[in-house]
Predict the structure.
Amino acid sequence: MKITRREIVKTGLAAGTALSMPTILRAQTSPDDARTVRWIPGGNTVAFDPIFSLNASQHALAIYDMLFDVDSKGMPQPQMVGKWGVSEDKKTYTFQLREGLIFHDGSPVTAADCVASIRRWAQVDTSGKLIMAKAKDISKQDEKTFTITLNEPLPLLIPLLASSYAGYYLAIMREKDAKLPPTEQVTANIGSGPFKFNQALAKPGASFTYDRNEQYIPRQEPADGFAGGKVVKVDRVVMEFITDEQTAFAALQAGEVDFVQYPAQVLYPAIESDPNLELELLNTAGSDMFIRLNCLQKPFNNVKARQAMLHLIDQEAIMLAAGFEPKNIRPVTSIFGYSTPYSNDENTAWYKKGGDPERAKLLLQEAGYAGETVLILQTTDWPQGSNAAQYLANTLRNIGVNAELAASDWAGMEKRRVNKGPIVDGGWSVFISDFADSKFNNPIGLPLLAANGVDYYGWPKNDEYEALRAKWAEVETLDERLALAREMQRLAWDFVGTVMLGNYVDPIARRKSLIGLVQVPSVYYPMWNMEKVSA
């Protein structure tokens, strides 16, 4: 029998779906909002430094610029770089900055700023770590020129420098900011990007304001993904942090906000029927939701317990329980995502529609599971993740697992998941997260696809897999990488650090007076190119 969302709601496994419109809306905005966009993002901004936290990327996209970035097809294009070239032996890359790059404090962007920023980024980003492992030197040549000299050729150097959508955002900061260790958050919020952060109007937990950077000179090419000209056509963008989906919808319908990044799917019919509103799919590849297992602590320090989770998960049921409509979800059986060029079917015999609880139960017995607590981190300010966590806990209990939930906001989950210790010392067993499907295109840039025991929470370790991953940046042809992808996946589904829950597409909701939004292979959306027109 096909599971429907209505049936899941009736059994009490999905939360927060009842339509309860607020009776009082916020005060109407002032008349000068004709060139102000009010935007409800996917979550609260709690970190501002994109090297300190992956979840600062939306903020970074507004105020910082990058040396290279990717277009709508995922191809790297120069952004801050005006000219670049490589030596005949393919070991020395020379980069010259384009004219007119100025930080928000009025100081010019220099090669020294770029060198310091690359070095800081490379301490945390897997692409950056690879570059540094192969680099002989990264140095300033003059005020506008710097070089990266390698010990051996690295064919993927430029794509790695443009891989912010897959890893940490390579924000070019002032040298004095970039000299801070990555464990210390930069709080100056001074970049050279198309928007300035308005510190005076900052209301932590409520709203943050970004003003158009009048000194910013965009590239001449048309906007294309994250690449091309970042032409700002509004004066101000206000990020409004409204976590209640019904309140967000009411504010959109009343014209108090212009953009809702994650409208509740049960409200799609209401949005589509409103002549002033529109759903728009900006990330057509969607996102992949996953479970991350703590490989250091019981029970998931045993590989059979991790394999049990592969067999246990009913992807359709958990995605419906999360709150997604059937037409918007798709199964994911590849570590390379749903739709990337490297997605494949190697070693996927474990996948079974509906899952296989009996097989999961047997594997747990073989792992010697003895009733240890499985603690699931539940992010209450991400409704889909919260619902999925509740469903997962019930599923585990049904096969005799002592599953408990630890509820907190996303920021609380981030703080806890760094703990490698046992649960009694503040550790954890499972957390749920997601990444844009396009990120799974790059096993070097996406920390989730590492298995070195270091780069991402959960800390799986497999030396054979890591040897294959190291070859990724060295091979030059697509066919070679396709073959590597199959071998990596064969191993990954044996040691199991991550369990896929499914792919979903998530249109944004906007007022029809807001036009020009840019399609990108990401869940972080540019604020340039959009404009407000008369309805």
Q: What stands out?
A: The longest strand covers residues 135-142. Residues 478-495 form the longest helix (18 residues).
